[in-house]
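Quick one from the shared queue. A colleague (R.T.) flagged Allantoin permease as missing a structural entry in our internal table.

Convert sequence to structure tokens.
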Amino acid sequence: MSNSRSDIFIPNAERTGSPKELFFIWFAGNIGILGVVMGALIVGYKLSFIQSIMAAVIGALSFGLVGYLSISGLKAGGTTFVLSRAAFGVKGNYIPNLLGWLSLVGWLAVNVVTGTLTLMSLFGIFGLGQSGVLMVISLAVFVLLILASSLFGQNMLVKIQTFFTYVFGALTFLILIILIPKTDWTALLSMSNGDWLGSFLPAISIIVAGTGISWSIAAADYSAYQNPVHSAKKVFASVTVGAFIPLFLIMGVGILLSTSVPDLVSSSNPIEAIGQALPKWMTVLYFITAIGGLIPQCIISLKSARVNLETLNIRVGNATAISIHALIMILIPIYVLFFSEDFLWNFQLFLGILGIGLASWAASFMFDYILLRRKAGYDAALLDHTTGKSLNYNGIFSWLAGIIVGFLFTNSPFFNGPFAKGIFKDSSLGVLMAFAASAIVTIILYQLKSKEEI
């Protein structure tokens, strides 16, 4: 494996990171209060307390996918969608790359919406009336906070994420401790078991789509800066555990809160709904903490989105790149805040549709790495857009197979898959079907062709 191309691989001089840094990056990226909403969403599938906790554990453990894909960045020193060119071909990689970029900016927009609603609630505490003008001001303030992060490099990013991990992580758990006693344990423990296939699996799939699968596209973007002398096991553990701890605990509190804040899932402003369950003296600190928890997620999304834009060979200046993402961060939230009344409906729809394409890509990329690249490595010539193979049909076919299967088992306001019936109706199980289909096809095609043909 060659590692001499600085335009493809991260220069060795910049690869000084340690696994501990990855722990802080992914811990900070998962302390957002939105995890509470995910926890309540699990209970919304009519599950018992034990089933809900199990779904939260499995859902949070999906970050093992991010942890494993981070190993590819450690070994090669390349970002995610640069390495993805090997599995799909330089041109074949364009559409998955574009889908990854859309997912990142979509998540960015979702978090900006949440941050704007949180700022609105904070301003409301100080007596400012809720109005469209205040909404626009809140949106502008939050977007400016995020754009400021684009000025920082990798080393500063690690320092910022470490700060957020300690400060806002501690504040978040302090608030969660205050919320726990409000749980109606009698109601919670009396909930009967839901259907394991019809409710439990769909609950897991929506969480997996919004956590491990969604963030898999950014895995190598950060591990590529790791010193290659570090072990793959430590990188895997740092990413997986760093994300699992806050994500599971915060979703767990969401499960508990589902009894004391029954309208949490249906609320147009779930952050404010949580704030109303707190003592008045705690609300200001809560809203500040909620904003602080959202910023790290936005930083990760924005950085990886800009990396993906470059991987698409869209070479624009720094000011232009910032302007493009700023426009997206403003226009999508404006639609959600002013024209769409159901925040979580849009949230779930977004996760479900994009999740199918991302799950298929993740399976194809991961098994291509397992079966071939893990031993053969990544050759710079293969990843260069001028010298690399234009189309790798193995990766393309396996990816398309996953997408087709996923949509066949999915229904939405835009289409209805012919097999989206029974347990597949109104669920996100199509995401898991897409992942499984792409994985199986990748393995089959690998067995049918020699390594030279791949």
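The two ends are 16 Å apart (CA to CA).
Residues 12-353 form a domain with the Hydantoin permease fold (CATH 1.10.4160.10).
Added to the table.
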